[in-house]
């Protein structure tokens, strides 16, 4: 980004902030409802205007936390929700300060552990009614996974699928343990690694996916309406997939191979 564009964006943010503040004071001077947008614009203008991004990241985090604390104390002082923003405000300058090292596996693992542990502690000691830290833990897990398997798409698909299935399995056990709904996202996710591993083997891919689909249909049939067997009808339709692949793709390839 060139300097002229940075100055333009910074000036635009400041101009917009002045406009919003004027509208706020002219319409409702007793309540400053533009605190949040003014803070966002201030962070953006400081980020665009300052050449030293490390200092800008610290200033941005300080403004973010200051704004959240101010709004929290003004609107709901009995519940300190600003603590949920604290891990983000701490991790952001760390990532900027280490620079390109953030792309390394070690940095990704360490920062992800720091971020996840912060929300896990908040969940255990501050808000214990529900295991909500599962969601930021799941989100942060993708950072070390992507850094570890960025150039290995098959391994990344396998590890990512395992991570997603594990997430839904835990979520299923926490929310509705009496109903095994995790089979639905599991069935959808398994197509990701299977399509990569067997992309050049259409018949094997069709066979494995057909079996997987039939198992999924039978499972849904058993879990939802065990007294009524309906899975045989879509299962019969699915079997036409490997059958057609075998006779229209595999067999012609074998014939052409023998002719040559």
TrEMBL record:
This is Uncharacterized protein. It comes from the Bacteria. Keywords: Membrane, Transmembrane, Transmembrane helix. The chain crosses the membrane at residues 7-25, 31-49, 56-74, 80-99, 106-124, 130-149, 156-174, 205-223, 229-249. The lineage of its organism: Bacteria, Bacillati, Bacillota, Bacilli, Bacillales. It comes from Sporolactobacillus terrae.
């Amino acid at each position: 980004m060139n300097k002229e564009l940075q100055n333009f964006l910074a000036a635009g943010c400041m101009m917009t902030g002045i406009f919003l503040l004027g509208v706020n004071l002219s319409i409702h001077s007793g309540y400053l409802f533009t605190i949040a947008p003014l803070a966002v614009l201030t962070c953006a203008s400081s980020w665009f205007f300052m050449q030293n991004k490390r200092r800008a990241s610290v200033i941005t985090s300080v403004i973010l936390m200051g704004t959240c604390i101010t709004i929290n104390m003004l609107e709901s002082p009995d519940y300190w929700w600003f603590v949920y923003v604290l891990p983000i405000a701490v991790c952001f300058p760390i990532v900027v300060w280490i620079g390109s090292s953030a792309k390394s596996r070690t940095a990704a693992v360490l920062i992800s552990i720091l971020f996840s542990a912060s929300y896990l502690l908040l969940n255990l000691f501050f808000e214990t009614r529900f295991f909500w830290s599962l969601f930021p833990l799941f989100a942060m897990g993708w950072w070390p996974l992507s850094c570890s398997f960025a150039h290995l798409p098959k391994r990344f698909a396998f590890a990512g699928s395992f991570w997603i299935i594990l997430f839904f399995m835990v979520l299923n056990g926490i929310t509705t343990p009496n109903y095994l709904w995790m089979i639905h996202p599991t069935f959808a996710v398994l197509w990701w690694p299977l399509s990569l591993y067997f992309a050049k083997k259409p018949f094997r891919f069709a066979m494995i996916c057909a079996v997987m689909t039939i198992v999924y249909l039978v499972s849904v049939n058993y879990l939802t309406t065990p007294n009524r067997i309906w899975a045989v009808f879509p299962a019969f339709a699915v079997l036409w997939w490997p059958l057609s692949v075998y006779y229209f793709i595999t067999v012609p390839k074998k014939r052409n191979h023998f002719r040559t």
